[in-house]
Amino acid sequence: MTSSRQSQNWLPTYLGLGTVWGLSFLFIAWANQSFSPLGVAFWRMVLGAVPMLVLAIVSKGNWPRDWRVWLKVAGTSITMNAVPAVLFAFAELHASSSFAGIMNGSTPIFTLLIILLFFRAEKPKPNVLVGLAVGLVGVLLVLQVWNGLGENDPAAVAALGLAVLLYGIGAPYARRFVSPLKLDPNVQVAMQVSMAAIMLAPFYLAGPLLVHPLTVDAVVGISLLGMLGTGIAYVFYYGLMNKAGSAVANSVTYLSPVVAVLAGTFILGESLTWNELVGGAVVILGAAISQGYFARRS
Questions:
Q1: What are the b/e assignments for 97-114, b being 16+ CB within 10 Å?
Q2: How far apart are CA 140 and CA 150, in angstroms?
Q3: Average pLDDT over residues 34-43
Q4: How many domains would you assign to the chain?
Q5: pTM higher than 0.90 for the full model?
Q6: Which domain holds residue 55?
Q7: Cα(233)–Cα(237) distance, rounded to whole angstroms?
Q8: Are the C-beta atoms of 115 and 172 separated by less than 8 Å?
């Protein structure tokens, strides 16, 4: 009974976070109607920084004064925020939001790959290697590797691959160099997103502010993407981590691709191929195996 009550406490947050992050790919598609990829990324960070800055100030978090701390957090900002945001927006100009969401679901697989190659601290467990292999098979299925890249635009595939690879680098980098700093989570996220906006500003302002006339969908999309998907979602994430632990919080990665596919199919009218459906399921399965989900369940 106690376990059931505990799960009921964090389940709404879990479902909310997975839904918000899954809908982010729909929001990007809407924002792309009026903004360039740089514009989508810039306004996403600006609007995402606002609620996080307010939260950090209200919670009276301690802001670091050592410039070396800011420099380390900037590394996370580049790999986890600024550059991937541009790449995902660019990719969705040439590929469906469903495809982008499925590829994003492979983030845990690429993270494990980077850890095994460059951040090795211990011998990998068998489930990690099995999950990695299963997940990579899923990625190959999504990409239709037996048919070149199938109907997938090479530029979109390259952009999504680089974005997910940067996520894979950013997570272990943050774990090794930023986590030991013991920063207040609200302050850290506010720092990351704010610095990403500052980094993107000169590149965005050097070009056109709009590439097409502003539409209602674009305004709604960029607003929800920034304030909800980039700002408030982090509040949900840390809240979920506090209630249910990091394992449950990180498993939300399994839910967001499903939401992305449903939103792309039923709201944007995107077509979904069999290999994307099967490959996406295999990617999620591989991520679950590698993170020891089935071992914990048993």
A1: bbbbbbbbbbbbbbbbbb
A2: 11
A3: 97
A4: 1
A5: no
A6: 2-297
A7: 6
A8: yes
